[in-house]
Design brief:
Layout lengths: L1 E2 L6 H5 L16 H4 L9 E4 L39 H7 L3 H15 L5 E6 L4 E6 L6 H4 L4 E2 H13 L8 E7 L11 H6 L2 E9 L6 E6 L8 E3 L16 E5 H4 E3 L6 E6 L2 E4 L1 E5 L4 E3 L15 E2 L2 E2 H4 L3
Helix pairs in contact: 4-6
Amino acid sequence: MKSRWMAPGALASVLLLAGASGCAPDAALSEESLSLETEARPVLTVNGIEFNGIELNGIELNGTNLNGTNLNGTNLNGLDTSGLNTPDFRAWFNQDVTRHDMLMKYMVQCAVPAGESRTFTNPETNTPYTWSGVLGLAPDWASGQPVTTAELRIVSACLAAHVNPYGQHVSISVLGLDATGQPTPYTAEELQSHALREGCFFGNLFQSEPVLFVGNDGLSLSSVQSSSRACALGSTLPGCAPLVYVGRCEDLCTREASSPFYTSCTWNGVTYPAITTRVRQEDLYSCGDGVCQVTEHCGSGMTAGSCRLDCGSC
């Protein structure tokens, strides 16, 4: 099946951006903090997507129209200049300029290759917007062609991979195959700097009943440790919804020989393309390091949930 631009309704509600930072998950962030910056390598990205929150940084998937019913519309266009200059897109964008600008940053980063960007000038304000590509996971859609089911699924996995329940910006290594089966580039240095295997992400946010899954790729934490990337560890924090934790990646997913990533994962009889993530050791926090992290709480103990050394007594 092929469809074109996910415009007002489907894409808008599937991926409203929201997030949080610091110890107050509902604290609004500045526009500067809302931007998603990238590392030097195309596959290294800084994540700050959160599924819950109001006017914050990240991606919120709790919109009232969280469905893909508009994908079958006849007036949907590709993710290129022509698709971004239709009446449908302009109307959708101006429903909530701040959030939809943020959404486009993430969408273009996942779908469009590095070195390319997408520009839109809002006719109502004459304000130009430019969104940079990074991963190039959806080459047909990015070139203005109808989006394929494979592209919808791999872009969904990419968006999910950038989620943490706190909306913090954390450097992650994003690995996998694009919709045509070509691997995202990576280096030995990247695998060394992001040495911790974290999770696998897969699903489809754009279908009539969206599904989104995450598995753990072997990362485990002691009682004194915590991570803002807790969704891949099976966290039940509200910020992980609607991500569904489904267990160990190795039990669900296929990895090519000597490859650092999974190519696909299967759940309930459906096989999806997958995104695999890796993180840095320094992005795991420990009670007792002298910093009260967003993942830690005051108390009388030495665990992340009760860390007197870093956060004091409650």
